[in-house]
Specification:
The structure is a homodimer of 453-residue chains. With 453 residues, chain A is α/β, with parallel strands linked by helices. Helix content of chain A is 38%, strand content 15%. The first copy, chain A, has one domain (6-142, 218-451): TIM Barrel (Alpha-Beta Barrel), CATH 3.20.20. Residues 333-347 of chain A have low confidence and may be disordered.
Chain lengths: 453, 453
């Protein structure tokens, strides 16, 4: 059986996510993001296209490196204003049956016990369709907004994350036995107290004592997503993640990242394919190549270069507001820029990009590549990405929302199905069963299972 | 014009809220609380009955004073297991147009910036129908579960609350000017940065710097609810609250509480009626008195006395597990019990209650009174409560869910409407406009307005 390509939609509770300036496009509905209808319409479209899930990014700070102020981010609505992502999931779950939900949750800013309850609640309300993208936060502005003097350093954040995960596993897997809820109307016992265990944790960063407040949900631990690209981040993903998000501009670079991630997973005693790797991708499709190119040209008219540089400044820590568009990126490269280029790999090693080119590259599709072409060409290229890089699927961003998604669902999905590389119906069961086919719960040797009672 | 009686439904994301043991009743659906359908059905029923809102209680600890363990709470599902209340609001909002939502949020356990965004998101998704019940937390078990050694002392909690409110007002009222979001497709400006202001707060308990992440919602500050009954709590409510919840066993006791609350409001320079006071109430109604009494008898067969004492032990801090049902409550009274009796006023001053009687009293309806009777009798008695105590309306708990609510909607609501004391249609606008009729936003001299720009 051919391995099926997995597809998530990549979105955020904000009018402008990866693609900059397209909120001005007359068919773009992104500014309706504050309404329930917008998200329910989107969820229905995604389920019609048999998408595995919708993945919601989140930041709790602003991109304020560009011009040393949040002004450019605000002008271009670069991921600001933004709203809470968790609250969208119940309304999308209400109008779908199979669609999965991945939500970005920073463990830096939320107490473990109420966070664990929040995710369990989502797992209940969605009948086991929820996933958690574990992030440690990367914006200084978010740290300041949460009352910290500055961002905790990168390595320490991963130490905190390790401890946080241990508490999560204790709460989700180790507090309630499977049959603790008996609801016995004869004996009057709703929960058998002997089967509910108090968690005690006295660690370096956290200390808590108590039972998990939520009764067992179908998946217990939500499907775990991670997007860390540093070596600490990859080791963390190799240990904990079931899904990983990556972003690379070329197949070659991506193939290397995939190999490293598979190796990191195996180093933790897990099978390489225990982690499903999703690559960020943007698709602009037409019935013909000309139609697609024409769409791209039309879209580009609305692109915001200031918005793109704002995003890039936020990611790299370098203020690009004083650069000339013709400045070569190599010219202004410093240590932190080197890291940024490695991380976002916005430039391939053999090319000197200018600031303007990078901005143009980022404006449509953000840090991910863009495939533009006919249905056949897009499908061919998607298959090549999978075959030549070893990824499991795509995290599909949008250019115009929901047009980009609807185009993909109406044109590309049927072709991928015809080729036998995309599902023709959902598997039954929880998100974990749909993705991995085994069980609603995590299996050994995943570290969560060590805390199971 | 006769002042209309306000009615909220009182509920919680848990199988057992105020009434103990009724989860065993064959028509009780409370154990479906983990599903979206359950809450959407309930919301539709409430809107059919023109309820002003549904008010969601919450605790993040367990009642573990009884028997010095959480066992009795678990056995009887006394507010445990419980799930996150916020996530229910979007799904109920999706199937209603007017129903308001009050949600209990403890400011002790959530960072101000993400909490402010969460409430703004709810205000957006509900089109301005959200309220916040400000609590400072009262369970030691919740403090421990959040990693604190023990509960912060009562007075300090209110000092923290004052500072937290100031930050909330700064974020909700003082960060974004009303027309900051311009979405000008000609100029490409989504937000005018000159109209978005960075909040700086450097206080005793909190420190933060940043803009509010959410764009302005209809109400900005959600409708503020408070239930504090101590003198510090009443002063806090008098200053901040727009709605207050109280609970008293007799009209006489309640009238005194209402007078104190009105006075506390006036002491803050506000009008006495700027705070809408809701009294907790449970109604068991039949077409005749006999039918209602028969319902009560039937319900009582399912009541859990252990559950009631578990709740009472949690509220009072006294372990009632070692008491005999015939022990007089006065006999075991100590300083903390005195406070508890004053607070919950479960005993009137001229009567010596036994532990068993108190348990029986609490088992149906929790700490609030219960009205049992025909449609006429219930309506008469509700009107008397309003007239003789000065309250604005009721916070209606349930005995069997949703039967108790459906009975009330089908029988009592039409009678109250016939009498001209209950609305026959919703007012248009936000929850604040529906309740107070003036503006979607808070008006001077409410302290929030001082932070408005």
């Amino acid at each position: 059986m051919t391995r099926k390509i997995l597809i998530n939609a990549f979105n955020m509770n904000t009018p402008v996510h990866q693609t900059q300036g397209l909120w001005k496009h007359p068919r773009d509905r992104s500014s309706e993001y504050t309404t329930i209808k917008y998200w329910q319409d989107l969820a229905r479209t995604l389920e019609r296209g048999l998408f595995d899930g919708i993945f919601l990014a989140d930041i709790t700070g602003v991109y304020d490196v560009y011009g040393a102020s949040p002004d450019a981010a605000l002008r271009n609505a670069v991921q600001v204003p933004n709203n809470d992502p968790y609250l969208l999931i119940p309304v999308m779950a209400a109008v779908t049956e199979h669609l999965g939900f991945g939500v970005t949750g920073s463990l830096t800013y939320e107490p473990p016990n109420t966070f664990a309850r929040k995710m369990s609640t989502l797992d209940h309300l969605t009948n086991g369709r929820v996933g958690w993208n574990i992030v440690t936060g990367y914006l200084n502005s978010a740290a300041k907004a949460a009352g910290q003097v500055k961002q905790t350093d990168h390595d320490t954040r991963y130490d905190i994350a390790e401890e946080y995960m241990e508490i999560m596993y204790k709460l989700w897997e180790g507090s309630w036995e499977e049959d603790a809820v008996c609801r016995n109307v004869e004996t009057g016992v709703y929960v058998d107290p002997a089967k509910v265990h108090r968690i005690k944790h006295d660690g370096e960063y956290f200390k808590l004592e108590g039972i998990h407040l939520s009764e067992p949900s179908l998946q217990r631990t939500p499907v775990l997503y991670q997007a860390g690209s540093s070596s600490k981040g990859q080791a963390f993903a190799g240990k904990h993640a079931e899904c990983a998000f990556i972003s690379s501009p070329t197949k070659n670079v991506m193939a290397g990242t995939v190999r490293k991630m598979r190796a990191a997973t195996e180093q933790q005693g897990r099978k390489a394919r225990d982690v499903a790797i999703f690559a960020m991708m943007n698709v602009i499709v037409g019935r013909t190549n000309e139609e697609a190119q024409e769409k791209l040209r039309e879209y580009r008219q609305y692109a915001s270069y200031e918005g793109a540089l704002t995003l890039m400044s936020g990611w790299t820590g370098i203020d690009f507001s004083s650069c000339d568009p013709s400045d070569p990126v190599k010219h202004i490269r410093n240590d932190s820029m080197q890291t940024a280029i490695d991380r976002f790999t916005i430039a391939d090693p053999n090319r000197v990009w200018t600031v303007g080119e990078v901005a143009e590259y980022l404006a449509i599709g953000g840090s991910g590549p863009v495939i533009v072409g006919s249905v056949q060409e897009v499908s061919d290229e998607m298959q090549r990405w999978v075959e030549e890089t070893g990824i499991d699927g795509f995290n599909l961003a949008y250019t115009v929302n929901p047009e980009s998604i609807a185009d993909f669902v109406d044109m590309v999905v049927p072709e991928l199905q015809r080729r036998g590389v995309y599902k023709t119906e959902y598997r039954s069961g929880t998100l974990r069963e749909k993705l991995f086919g085994e069980s609603p719960r995590l299996q050994a040797p995943h570290p969560a299972t060590k805390f199971r009672i």
